[in-house]
Amino acid sequence: MNVFDRVLVRRRRDRAAPRFTEHAFLFEEVAERLSDRLDDVRRGFPTVLDLGSHDGAVGRVLAGRKGIERLVACDLSPAFARAAGRSGPSVAADEEFLPFAPHSFDLVVSNLSLHWVNDLPGALLQVRQALKPDGFFCASMLGGETLAELRRCLFEAEMAVSGGVSPRVSPYADVRDAGGLLQRAGFALPVVDSDTLTVTYSDAFALMRDLRGMGETNAVLARHKAPVRRELLFEAARRYAEQYAEPDGRLPATFQVLYLAGWSPHESQQQPLKPGCGTVPLADALKGTQHKLH
Q1: What is the C-alpha separation between 77 and 81, in angstroms, rounded?
Q2: Strand order in the sheet with 105-111
Q3: What number is the average pLDDT over the span 222-248?
Q4: Which end of the chain is more exposed for a tag (fewer CB within 10 A), N or C?
Q5: In sequence order, which residues have a C-beta less than 8 Å from that of residue 133 and are 6 or more positions away?
Q6: Looking at the domain assignment, is residue 167 inside a domain?
Q7: 45, 107 in Cβ contact below 8 A?
């Protein structure tokens, strides 16, 4: 199923690249949080792929850490690939069609990019295949509660102005979806957790400008292709201020971030026991309390 217009995603990233640093706060913050998670893994990663690198925030954060000897940046956008490649090798490539040989990397890290992928199960499978045995995958992507305020206000405004609705904010996965996708792709010991970042803006139009500057505006294939009517935008902004304004007048915007982690399978990893091979009676595990079923 194709949900996103990948050509449009690439075009919008190319457009955002020249002034991306003015709007990159979310990518930089989440890159730091990803690196904190990697610090909990007590081993080095000589060869790393930064998948969906944007301007290379992850590469900058990881520089000189975790025993990294070679980091390859990869982004759908040629403009971003050039920006990330200023400090090392880079390639412009689609996450759905990775050009890397099997067992090429000790670590694949991806920062706020995979939520734009149509074939996410296929992309994750290719990531696992690109990892060496016992290689590590660590990623962040936007989750289902992202921009809940804007989503609601656009929905209500379009109903009021047009009498119907169309997709105005892209759909996102939730924690359960992400965990299932890691398992489906064959990752060992998969872990998914989430975090919520709230950013405040002077008005809804400031939020929309930031989304445009990030290259994160709507690219759903089913969207209306005609330009958004000014009347609709002003009505959505009015509702946003009316429903969500904080005491100081600023407007909150929610970004839910999912963190995914998993290992490329290897015989040295901890394995679950086979059913029936336990040596401790269930009653002992329950501290000697036995229960009868009636």
Answers
A1: 6
A2: 90-92, 70-75, 47-51, 105-111, 131-142, 251-263, 188-201
A3: 89
A4: C
A5: 103, 264, 265, 266
A6: yes
A7: yes
Report pLDDT digits (tens) over 109-142: 999 999 999 999 999 999 999 999 999 999 999 9
Residue 51, in any domain of the structure: yes
pLDDT band at 272; cut points 50, 70, 90: low
Both tokens assigned to 177: 């979806």
Q: Does residue 285 sit within a domain?
A: no
- Exposure class string for 85-119: b at 16+ Cβ within 10 A, else e: beebebbbbbbeebebeeebbbbbbbbbbbbbbbb
Residue 271 above 90 pLDDT?
Answer: no
Q: What is the CATH number of the domain that holds 219?
A: 3.40.50.150
Mind listing the pLDDT tens digit for each residue in 152-169?
A: 999 899 888 876 666 556
Q: Are β-strands 105-111 and 90-92 bridged in parallel, bridged antiparallel, or unpaired?
A: unpaired
In 3D space, the residue among 120, 235, 223 whose CA is nearest the CA of residue 169 turns out to be 223
Which amino acid is located at 170 in the chain? S
What are the residue ranges of helices labelled H in the chain? 6-16, 25-39, 57-62, 78-84, 120-130, 148-162, 175-184, 204-214, 230-244, 282-285
